[in-house]
Amino acid sequence: MKVNYSFLVSARVTTSFGKRPLEALSGVTSWSASTTAFVPASATHRANLFSLTNGTDKPDNSRSYSHKKINSLYGTAQLNWDGCTSSRWYAA
């Protein structure tokens, strides 16, 4: 099962003169995936013969579970003044 959540916020501060001295963007992402599988425990004596009596050991199956999760936080800010622009990017 895979799950993905994203959240994004943008802000713009405008002065009374119509200039935009500050713009900012920030976001969060969360991704997770999990799997469950059955894993056979033994090899076979004869290739391509799938039988309980063809195994090198007694029949014994086990279950495998895997889970992975990634969280991201990111943002940017842009500051404008008198026609000059300065941008900074931050990510964690």
Summarize the structure.
The protein is mainly β.
Write the layout of secondary structure elements.
Layout: E1 2-13, E2 22-40, E3 61-81, E4 84-91
Textual characterization of the structure:
The chain is 0% helix and 65% strand. By secondary structure, the chain is an all-beta fold. The radius of gyration is 28 Å and the shape is rod-shaped. The protein starts with a strand and ends with a strand. The mean pLDDT is 78.
Find the count of extended strands (DSSP E, 2+ residues). Answer: 4
Q: What portion of residues is helical?
A: under 10%
Shape: rod-shaped
**Low-confidence runs of at least 5 consecutive residues:** none
H/I helix tally = 0
- Going across the major beta sheet, what is the strand order? 1-2-3-4
| H-E order | EEEE
- Biggest β-sheet, characterized? 4 strands, antiparallel
Name some characteristics of this structure.
0% helix; rod-shaped; mainly beta; 92 residues
